[in-house]
Design brief:
Layout: H1 3-11, E1 20-21, H2 22-28, H3 34-42, E2 55-56, H4 69-78, E3 83-84, E4 87-88, H5 91-94
Length: about 100
């Protein structure tokens, strides 16, 4: 299994209405390769089944998305995640940890 596949496998565990971070996925993979996780998200071959819109920055900022930031915000809002000025509101309660 490739590094990207391992990222996607973890990503698929994040439920609707929750978000996690590049750092959290890297940590779950026992690495500090946060940027590599971001690269994996950017190369996601199946945005419908592998919900990379649920990955945000560690400070709660939205970050990038292959279909654009506005689409990412829309998808998150449809799942009940509140976003204001490019940041997740109530980030601590929305955060999903793999621990």
């Amino acid at each position: 299994m490739t590094f990207n596949d391992k990222c996607y496998q973890l990503l698929s565990q994040i439920p609707q209405g929750k978000v996690s971070t590049y750092k959290e996925i890297a940590s779950a993979l026992n690495t500090k390769a946060y940027q590599a996780v971001g690269n994996a998200m950017a190369k996601n071959p199946n945005l419908i089944f592998i919900p990379c819109h649920r990955i945000v920055k560690s400070n709660g900022s939205i970050g990038k998305y292959a279909l654009g930031v506005n689409k990412k915000i829309s998808l998150l809002k449809n799942e009940g995640v509140l976003v204001r000025e490019g940041k997740i509101l109530d980030f601590e309660n929305c955060f999903y940890s793999f621990k």
